[in-house]
Amino acid sequence: VLRTANAGAVVATIRAFLSIADAVGKRPGDDRDEDSPTVDDLKRQVVVRIKAPLVTLLASGSSELTYVLLKYVDQLIDLCPGIFDDEYRVFYVRYHDQTHIKHSKVRILAKLANPDNAPDIVAELGELVA
User: Residue 98: what pLDDT?
Assistant: First the structure.
Protein backbone atom coordinates (compact mmCIF):
# COMPACT_ATOMS: atom_id res chain seq x y z
CA VAL A 1 0.00 0.00 0.00
CA LEU A 2 1.28 3.44 -0.94
CA ARG A 3 1.54 5.77 2.08
CA THR A 4 2.18 9.38 1.17
CA ALA A 5 0.31 12.66 1.27
CA ASN A 6 1.96 13.95 -1.90
CA ALA A 7 -0.54 13.85 -4.75
CA GLY A 8 2.21 14.08 -7.36
CA ALA A 9 3.93 11.03 -5.92
CA VAL A 10 0.68 9.06 -5.86
CA VAL A 11 -0.21 9.88 -9.48
CA ALA A 12 3.35 9.25 -10.70
CA THR A 13 3.42 5.90 -8.89
CA ILE A 14 0.09 4.88 -10.40
CA ARG A 15 1.26 5.81 -13.91
CA ALA A 16 4.56 3.99 -13.43
CA PHE A 17 2.95 0.78 -12.22
CA LEU A 18 0.28 0.85 -14.94
CA SER A 19 3.08 1.22 -17.52
CA ILE A 20 4.95 -1.71 -15.96
CA ALA A 21 1.76 -3.79 -16.06
CA ASP A 22 1.44 -2.97 -19.76
CA ALA A 23 5.01 -4.04 -20.40
CA VAL A 24 5.15 -7.29 -18.43
CA GLY A 25 1.56 -8.54 -18.52
CA LYS A 26 0.49 -11.45 -20.66
CA ARG A 27 -1.54 -10.55 -23.73
CA PRO A 28 -3.88 -12.78 -25.72
CA GLY A 29 -1.82 -14.90 -28.10
CA ASP A 30 1.35 -14.78 -25.97
CA ASP A 31 3.15 -18.09 -25.64
CA ARG A 32 4.00 -17.45 -21.98
CA ASP A 33 3.18 -19.76 -19.11
CA GLU A 34 -0.58 -19.96 -18.63
CA ASP A 35 -0.16 -18.99 -14.96
CA SER A 36 1.34 -15.62 -15.95
CA PRO A 37 -0.96 -12.72 -15.03
CA THR A 38 -2.62 -10.85 -17.87
CA VAL A 39 -2.25 -7.11 -18.43
CA ASP A 40 -5.80 -6.57 -17.16
CA ASP A 41 -5.14 -8.61 -13.99
CA LEU A 42 -1.99 -6.62 -13.23
CA LYS A 43 -3.73 -3.27 -13.84
CA ARG A 44 -6.60 -4.31 -11.58
CA GLN A 45 -4.11 -5.21 -8.82
CA VAL A 46 -2.44 -1.81 -9.16
CA VAL A 47 -5.74 0.06 -8.96
CA VAL A 48 -6.87 -1.96 -5.92
CA ARG A 49 -3.65 -1.09 -4.10
CA ILE A 50 -3.74 2.63 -4.85
CA LYS A 51 -7.43 3.11 -4.18
CA ALA A 52 -7.04 4.00 -0.48
CA PRO A 53 -4.35 6.69 -0.92
CA LEU A 54 -6.26 8.18 -3.84
CA VAL A 55 -9.51 8.38 -1.87
CA THR A 56 -7.65 9.94 1.07
CA LEU A 57 -6.15 12.59 -1.18
CA LEU A 58 -9.57 13.37 -2.66
CA ALA A 59 -10.93 14.23 0.75
CA SER A 60 -8.02 16.36 1.87
CA GLY A 61 -6.91 18.40 -1.13
CA SER A 62 -7.58 21.82 -2.57
CA SER A 63 -10.32 22.25 -5.16
CA GLU A 64 -7.80 22.21 -8.03
CA LEU A 65 -6.19 19.02 -6.75
CA THR A 66 -9.60 17.45 -6.13
CA TYR A 67 -10.66 18.16 -9.71
CA VAL A 68 -7.50 16.61 -11.18
CA LEU A 69 -7.82 13.55 -8.95
CA LEU A 70 -11.51 13.16 -9.84
CA LYS A 71 -10.56 13.13 -13.53
CA TYR A 72 -7.93 10.52 -12.77
CA VAL A 73 -10.40 8.40 -10.80
CA ASP A 74 -12.83 8.68 -13.71
CA GLN A 75 -10.20 7.17 -16.02
CA LEU A 76 -9.37 4.43 -13.51
CA ILE A 77 -13.06 3.51 -13.24
CA ASP A 78 -13.15 3.08 -17.03
CA LEU A 79 -9.95 1.00 -16.85
CA CYS A 80 -11.12 -1.24 -13.99
CA PRO A 81 -14.90 -1.13 -13.53
CA GLY A 82 -16.18 -2.07 -10.10
CA ILE A 83 -13.06 -1.18 -8.13
CA PHE A 84 -14.42 2.04 -6.61
CA ASP A 85 -18.02 0.82 -6.18
CA ASP A 86 -17.67 0.48 -2.41
CA GLU A 87 -16.29 4.02 -2.09
CA TYR A 88 -19.28 5.76 -3.69
CA ARG A 89 -19.98 7.94 -0.64
CA VAL A 90 -16.68 9.77 -1.16
CA PHE A 91 -18.11 11.12 -4.41
CA TYR A 92 -21.25 12.62 -2.89
CA VAL A 93 -21.59 16.28 -3.83
CA ARG A 94 -21.02 18.75 -1.01
CA TYR A 95 -22.73 22.10 -0.81
CA HIS A 96 -19.46 24.03 -0.95
CA ASP A 97 -18.02 22.08 -3.93
CA GLN A 98 -17.35 24.19 -6.99
CA THR A 99 -19.49 23.57 -10.06
CA HIS A 100 -16.86 21.70 -12.07
CA ILE A 101 -16.22 19.39 -9.11
CA LYS A 102 -19.95 18.77 -8.69
CA HIS A 103 -20.23 17.79 -12.35
CA SER A 104 -17.29 15.40 -12.06
CA LYS A 105 -18.68 13.79 -8.92
CA VAL A 106 -22.12 13.28 -10.47
CA ARG A 107 -20.51 11.73 -13.57
CA ILE A 108 -18.50 9.37 -11.37
CA LEU A 109 -21.54 8.46 -9.25
CA ALA A 110 -23.37 7.45 -12.43
CA LYS A 111 -20.52 5.10 -13.31
CA LEU A 112 -20.40 3.63 -9.80
CA ALA A 113 -24.11 2.91 -9.56
CA ASN A 114 -25.04 -0.75 -9.32
CA PRO A 115 -28.06 -2.61 -7.91
CA ASP A 116 -26.55 -2.59 -4.40
CA ASN A 117 -25.79 1.11 -4.06
CA ALA A 118 -28.22 2.69 -6.54
CA PRO A 119 -30.93 3.49 -3.94
CA ASP A 120 -28.40 5.38 -1.79
CA ILE A 121 -27.02 7.28 -4.77
CA VAL A 122 -30.49 8.20 -6.05
CA ALA A 123 -31.53 9.39 -2.58
CA GLU A 124 -28.39 11.52 -2.30
CA LEU A 125 -28.88 13.05 -5.75
CA GLY A 126 -32.53 13.68 -4.87
CA GLU A 127 -31.38 15.68 -1.83
CA LEU A 128 -29.01 17.60 -4.08
CA VAL A 129 -31.75 18.82 -6.43
CA ALA A 130 -34.35 19.43 -3.72
Answer: 94
Q: Mean pLDDT, the chain, as a whole number?
A: 89
61 φ/ψ sector (left φ>0, alpha ψ -120 to 50, else beta): beta
SS (HEC) of 36-91: CCEHHHHHHHHHHHHHHHHHHHHHHCCHHHHHHHHHHHHHHHHHCCCCCHHHHHHH
Distance, in Å, from the CA atom of 93 to the CA atom of 82, rounded to the nearest integer, reads 20
Read off the pLDDT of residues 51-95 as tens digits, 9 standing for 90 and up: 988 888 888 878 899 999 999 999 999 999 999 999 999 999 998
Q: What is the pLDDT of residue 1?
A: 55
Longest alpha-carbon distance in the chain: 57
Are the beta carbons of 54 and 87 closer than 8 angstroms?
no
In the chain, the amino acid numbered 57 is L
In degrees to the nearest 10, what's the CA dihedral of 19, 82, 110, 94? -80
CA angle 31, 37, 39 (to 5 degrees): 90
